[in-house]
Amino acid sequence: MPHDQFLRQAGDQIESLLADLRSVSDPVVQEKAEELVQVLVEVYGAGLERIVELLHEEPQGNERVLQLANDEFVASLLILHGLHPVDTETRVERALDKVRPYLGSHAGGCEFLGIDDAGVVQLRLQGSCNGCPSSTLTVKLAIEGAIQAAAPEITGIEVEGVAERPPENLISLDSLRRNGQSGNGGVSADHWTTIDGFGDLPVGAFKAMEISGRQVVICRANGSTYAYLNVCPACGSSWKDEGLSDVILTCTHCEERFDVHLAGRGLSRTDITLQPLPLLVEQDRMKIAMPGFVA
Predict the structure, then answer these.
(1) Domain CATH for 260
(2) Structural domain containing residue 256
(3) pLDDT digits over 163-211, tens only?
(4) 3-state secondary structure of 71
């Protein structure tokens, strides 16, 4: 079972068990249940702290700790107990560096302003993508997903003065005690699908595939990788593994053309655009967000 899936299932199970115990009329039982969870978290946290201390005592111990922190599962546990070797701001900057190539074609870039005293990441989008009504939404989803994965301890994200929902920290004790569903239509980390073997697509590559029950096209053009829902907004048809030339994706049915570098903007019809999907490239794999409200 993938580690992120294990964490989600464990969190759901703990939440369910605690909910059952809270329904017990005896307040002493409720208090003891909460205390038990807290003690268990503190015990394995102390164990992790001792492991990190022992590693630091060895030659090249710092490098070994950094290698451990590169694993998402281990990194999440280190973050939970304040043991991650890389500070939060640096991890946020690195996360933004991963998505900046994608943001460059959709919003012109993203400036990291810092993290305020409340733990909220402050960002400013630079530029805009005219004619693409979903561009801003797409950019915010990509930013949110990247930062959540790198720094789940943050309390929120504020982009261009609009406060985003707090991130879904799947392993903290507080998040284990709350419902993981977003109440405002946001996209949680659960919607990000990892695809192995596509992290280094050759230039000009074009692939049609199904992800989470949705038809998607993945394009490698102009030095960046892009993902769109596989449906032509002009005629409703879908692409096979053909139609891409440089940055132009041509529908083989109606011959309408779209610029994949400019968020799927139609060339002859400016009122239509492909539906872009947030995409993160990590070494030899990709992560694509499949939000339920994207049509």
Answers:
(1) 2.102.10.10
(2) 195-289
(3) 444 444 333 334 333 333 333 333 343 367 888 776 667 777 888 888 8
(4) coil
